[in-house]
Queue: 4 jobs
Job 1
Amino acid sequence: MSTMTGTSILDVEIPAELPAAPIATLGPEGTSSEASSRYLGTQLGTRFGRPGSDWPVQLHDRYELAGNAVRTGAAGLLVVANAYHGVSEFYMDPRLRILGAYVFDTPLYGIAAAPSSPTAGPVRIASHPAPVPLIHELLDADRFDVAEIIRCDSTSAAAATVASGEADLALTTKPASELHGLTLISRVRPIRMLWSIFAPWPAERRRQGLSADGSHPSPQER
């Protein structure tokens, strides 16, 4: 089970006036990002006196769309897995600020199959790009050969790709496999992951540009 112990939110800049706007992250339902964001909502709800189960989470098809929701004010916080190859976009964006980070174990990952999936031989495996190294760790090499890796926008989308017949197997999470009627056919394990929390800069701070300590450069000075 994943836990936050001690001061697991590393940056203490999380404001006392945390907005009630949703946490935006990668969807659809069943992703590790959803599980992590709901966990964060529970922790923040406890910290700020709001029931965690009531903290809304917005699910987007890509992290970039979740980031846009925060930039436009449709969401208050953005949660991104630090294993995501494009996470630097959010660190560099002058419209966003890093509020904190925390460690959270993902749901269990495994190789999932549909009832119609092949039971041996060459297979097309769907996966989000970040956990692709797990395929060769978890796939039974005595039964299967990887013919193709189909890259999807999320682990839940990978499971959906198998359910629709576009792939033979998926590297996905246990919640996503259950959601799409798949069966895990490999051993399973979580991924210990660092997650970053971003929020928009207040409009006044954006207008001011570079602060006295240089912590927020204006676009002209980037």
Job 2
Amino acid sequence: MPGQEGALPAASPDPVREAGPLEEAWSIFDARHLPYRLLMLGKMLDRISTQQVRDVASVSLAEWRVLAHIAVMGSRSASEVSVAALVDRAEVSRGVRSLEEKGYLTRVNNPRNRKSSLLVLTPAGADVYERMQQQRRAFYSVLTADLNAGELQMLDELLLRIARRADGLARERPFEAGATE
């Protein structure tokens, strides 16, 4: 009540926890629909990431993924990037072509396979990667600010377990309704 000593000031609403369209969309399906919720989160992160890489590095999200994989993995073929990124080879090829035009990547002969070339970051590409990576780290810190180190590790381990199961299902057999192990 106003004027009462010891009364706590009214807390400002926390925009992260405030009910709104996200909570409504999230509650359409319950926790048994985890894939739906993961897809929703993935789409949200893609939207944010698309804007961030466009604003900071003037590249598309697909181009950023290629650039980041080459920066982290070192010189690789487009096929190797496609496998590592779990994306279609055509998407990688379009990204490579655009990154070459921008001067961020170049191709060199692949000593292991004469039919393919290796993708190599140029100094300009390495600069874009470093600049963008600083922004991405800051974004990840903000995104996971409500989780402690143990929770982050647990989340990573749980997501990996789900990913392994999904990978096994995709490789072993087509999904059968009601099939469980």
Job 3
Amino acid sequence: MDRKKLEQGNEAFITKMKEIRPDFFDELKKGQTPDYFVLACSDSRSDPDTIFSALPGTMFVHRNVANQVVHDDESLTIGLYYAMRVLHVKALLILGHTGCGGVMAARQGLANEFLDPWLDHVKENIQGVDQLNADDNQFVRQNIRNQLVNLKDHPVYRDIGKGIPIVGALFHLETGQIEWID
């Protein structure tokens, strides 16, 4: 690990934030009031804060491989609960991206004892796409659509999510653009 590179990046971040808003860190320590709960893929190329040019404190982010809503995922459940009940986010966003390795691994039937339980969820969520005539991103879109349904059906959302909109988006790695998914 190149700690020096990380330290330099941190120093650049501090300098930039102080230039943009001199009181940034004083405000940040007071607490968070994010507008959005974002469920995004773990892929290092698809960081929600970077994609939306969001400052720290704007988005409450949960990440996993292929942005899956799994009802018995305790980490997702507590994050979703905290975002809605304590932070009072205004919207929930499912953020996928083109070229998702998790979706492609599930589509190709990749088998691995460590990956199989998670990829089984992904496989379920890409059903209904024409295997022969679809491009890879049609599977990613289908996955996002199904995550929207899964989130609406999540016990925490059903219990306390009334009135909080859920939206889906596809981040295009090749252009940087967002495509909204219904």
Job 4
Amino acid sequence: MGDYGLRQRRRDDQDYLLPQTSHIKVRLPPKTKSGLTCCKFLFFVFVGLPLSLVGFGSYLVFTPGIIDPQYYSMPEPPELTGPLAVNDMLTKAERLMEGEISGPESILLDQGKLYTGTYNGKVVEILKNEVLRFVRWGPPPCGSYITEPTCGRPLGVRMTSNKQLIVADAYLGIYSVNIVEGKDVF
């Protein structure tokens, strides 16, 4: 049949031959209308989404809820008398070893001597505001958050009947310490 001046439409899903080469088949991509897709997106963002949010918000505001709130007022607070009286006795306390011992925990008093674990991994013996001796498990330098796993952080100190200190360390475990000789027993 001849071409009578009518143009036939090509379908986009068919294979076509290139004019120069007859052995290569090329599939043409489907025609897209990118401008229309962009307009649909902008319409959704600037019109559809705000309208749906306004509709959902008005639904929440104007529909009755299943909760029936009741008015409640707090009772008057009790008077600060008896055990609730203001206690400022600690404001008159004397600070011991301020600036010399950092972060003491679990203080033990035995025959006038204080024993405590410190932030830098030491267990110290204090008599009359002076450090008599100390025991440290980790190698110096100690006293920072980074060195706590190696230097230790003694958090609990107790005395046994045979004058051994039992020290509970957060990182290194439980130790029995002879602080006079400066060594651990276990």
